[in-house]
Design goal:
- With 236 residues, this protein is mainly beta.
- 2% of the residues lie in helices and 54% in strands.
- It has two domains: 86 residues, C-type lysozyme inhibitor (Lipocalin, Beta Barrel); 106 residues, no CATH class.
- The strands form two sheets. Strands 10-11-12-13-14-15-16-17 form an eight-stranded antiparallel barrel. Strands 2-3-4-5-6-7-8-9 form an eight-stranded antiparallel barrel.
Length: 236
C-alpha cells in the first residue's frame, strides 16, 4: 500500500481515521492567491457533461451551454474546443475551424482533420457545483484505491485524500506549468518534506468504473506512486 508521506523517515504523522494529528503545513505567503486555471477545464456554464462512444473507437465529452446561440464545449483525447453554433437544416451543428459537431438527439457526426467519427451518446453526468463542493475550484479523483485532490478556490492549497479517504492532508503548492492554450497545469508541493506532483490536462476522460464523463485527465504522483483519474473545474 502506498503512503502519502513517509512518516518513519520524516517523523511526520498523517490523519489516520481521526486518531492522529498531522504536522501543520508550512504557512502560505500572506495574500497568496490560487491561480486562474484554464477555462477548458470548466463546463463554462453548462449544467451537465455527456460522454459519446464513437466509431472509429474513440470517446468524446461535450458540455452544451443553454440557449440556441450558445457554444458547445468538446473534449477528445487530443484536446479541447469551443464550437460555435452554425446553420443546419435539422438537429444542431457547431463549428470551430476544421472541427464540426452535428448531432440529432443521441447521435452525432464529428469531423476533424483527423477524420470523421460517428458517435452515440451513452452517459450523462451533472456538473459539480460550488454548492456541492464549497471552497473547491478543481476536483480530481480516481479509483482502486479511491483518491481525491481538491484545490482551494482562494489560496494555493490542495487537500489530498488517499486510500478511500482514510489518509488525508492539506498542503501548499506551487505552479510549475500553466499553459492556458493547451489546458495543462502542473503543480508541485510547496513543502520540501512532503513532495507530490499533480498534473491536470484538458481532454476527454471517463471514470474507469462508472464511465461518467469529465473534461480533464489527472495524474497524482506521491512517493513514486501514480494515481490516475479524471477531474473538473468548479466555477463560483
Amino acid at each position: 500500500m502506498s503512503r502519502l508521506l513517509p512518516p518513519a523517515a520524516l517523523g511526520l504523522t498523517l490523519l489516520l481515521g481521526g486518531c492522529a494529528t498531522a504536522t501543520p503545513s508550512a504557512p502560505i505567503t500572506p495574500g497568496a492567491q490560487a491561480p486562474l486555471l484554464p477555462s477548458v477545464l470548466f463546463p463554462g456554464g453548462a449544467d451537465s457533461f455527456t460522454a459519446w462512444r464513437c466509431t472509429p473507437d474513440q470517446a468524446l465529452v461535450t458540455a452544451a451551454l443553454p440557449g440556441q446561440e450558445a457554444e458547445l464545449r468538446l473534449w477528445s483525447a487530443h484536446g479541447a474546443w469551443r464550437l460555435q453554433p452554425a446553420v443546419v437544416a435539422s438537429g444542431a451543428r457547431y463549428e470551430q475551424g476544421e472541427v464540426s459537431f452535428w448531432n440529432r438527439g443521441a447521435e452525432a457526426i464529428v469531423e476533424t482533420p483527423r477524420g470523421r467519427l460517428e458517435c452515440q451518446a451513452y452517459v450523462q453526468r451533472q456538473a459539480l457545483t460550488r454548492e456541492q463542493r464549497p471552497g473547491v475550484m478543481f476536483l480530481g479523483r480516481g479509483n482502486e484505491p479511491g483518491w481525491m485532490a481538491s484545490l482551494a478556490h482562494d489560496r494555493p492549497e490542495v487537500t489530498l485524500s488517499l486510500d478511500y479517504g482514510t489518509r488525508e492532508q492539506t498542503l501548499p503548492y506551487r505552479v510549475t506549468t500553466l499553459d492556458n492554450g493547451a489546458g495543462r497545469v502542473i503543480l508541485a508541493s510547496g513543502r520540501g518534506d512532503t513532495p507530490f506532483e499533480l498534473r491536470i490536462e484538458a481532454g476527454a476522460c471517463l471514470d474507469d468504473m462508472s464511465g461518467e464523463p469529465f473534461p480533464a485527465r489527472v495524474t497524482l504522483t506521491v512517493n513514486g506512486e501514480q494515481y490516475r483519474g479524471c477531474g473538473q473545474g468548479i466555477a463560483p
